[in-house]
Amino acid sequence: MNHRDYIQILESHLLPFINNNYNGRGYLFQDDNAPVHTAKNVKKWIETKKVKILENWPSQSPDLNPIEHLWSELERRIRKRPNPAKNVRELECALHEEWNQIPNNTLINLIESMPRRVEACIKNNGWPTKY
């Protein structure tokens, strides 16, 4: 993904989500500081749109980002499917199907693991952990 695509996703999905659910207040946007997220034009877009971001987040830190683990779960499920997607539409359908099959307990376990993840990250002075 390039920075223009990322800005388009933020424009199409993040801004409406913030406005519809938070009326522009009471949220902090978190990303993992991957290079595409920190490009100059992305930073300028965030500043122009007044998106409130979580400052001082460790660079590329999936240890502290549960969504990374959900993406991994989704990828494992997609790879296990007997018939691989032949085009983007089939892939999109498969992703929706598999996402909806992830048990709520998986989400709850990830959320409940956050104190352990933070503790492990602190213990490791911010370096990668077993998570």
From TrEMBL:
Domain of life: Eukaryota
One term of GO molecular function: nucleic acid binding
Domain Tc1-like transposase DDE as annotated: residue spans: 32-89
Pfam families: DDE_3
Alphabetical list of Gene3D superfamilies matching this protein: Ribonuclease H-like superfamily/Ribonuclease H
Protein name, UniProt field: Tc1-like transposase DDE domain-containing protein
Organism name: Rhizophagus irregularis (strain DAOM 197198w)
